[in-house]
Amino acid sequence: MNKKQYIAYYRVSTKKQKKSGLGLTAQKAIVEHYANADKAEIVKEFVEAESGKNIENRVILKQAINYCLDYNCTLIVAKLDRLSRDVEHIFQIKKKLGDLFKSCDLPTTDSLTLSIFAGLAQRERELISIRTKAALKAKKAQGVMLGNPHHLTNEARKLGVESIKRKAEMNVNNTRAMRLIVRCKNAQMSLADIANELNQHGFTTSRGKQFHKTTVMRLYERSCSI
Predict the structure, then answer these.
(1) Is the overall model pTM greater than 0.85, yes or no?
(2) pLDDT beyond 70 at 120
């Protein structure tokens, strides 16, 4: 009697996880344990690094499904959410494969059981999205710069360049102001008098404000540390 033949599909959320094996080792262990208990043979493995919400670009999953259909093998996943976190997507796959589908966390793959577990997987995806947005919002509130610079729009890049230019101009302004401050300090002028001197000559702080004793002191201390 020939052994059942399984095609294992493993999904990790990022390419970094795929490289490090994070999550992949556990999935393989679960699938292999299930296959051994079922006296089945894992004839091929497909590994994909893609988020659970991205159902349009799952090239490896499509390859795994087509392989199962071509060679009459059963697609097996460690957990349903590794296949997908979208209810409609899961049922589309089930419709294509029919009985050629197993998920190690499901007692059966009948429509009722599948709909319950698929709903839970989709809800978890929604919760992940909520938690991620909340975490990013908290990071942004802390002043952390978010986003990949390679993904910036042309308008965002233009604004970034303009901001850099403004900061550079302010750095030049600060350098000239520091020189004047040092000269005034050497002349035994008070901080208040130095601030007045800077304001009269049109100098402003990095925020475009007039100088006061505290801002003069900060620039003077910075000039001493250079």
Answers:
(1) no
(2) no
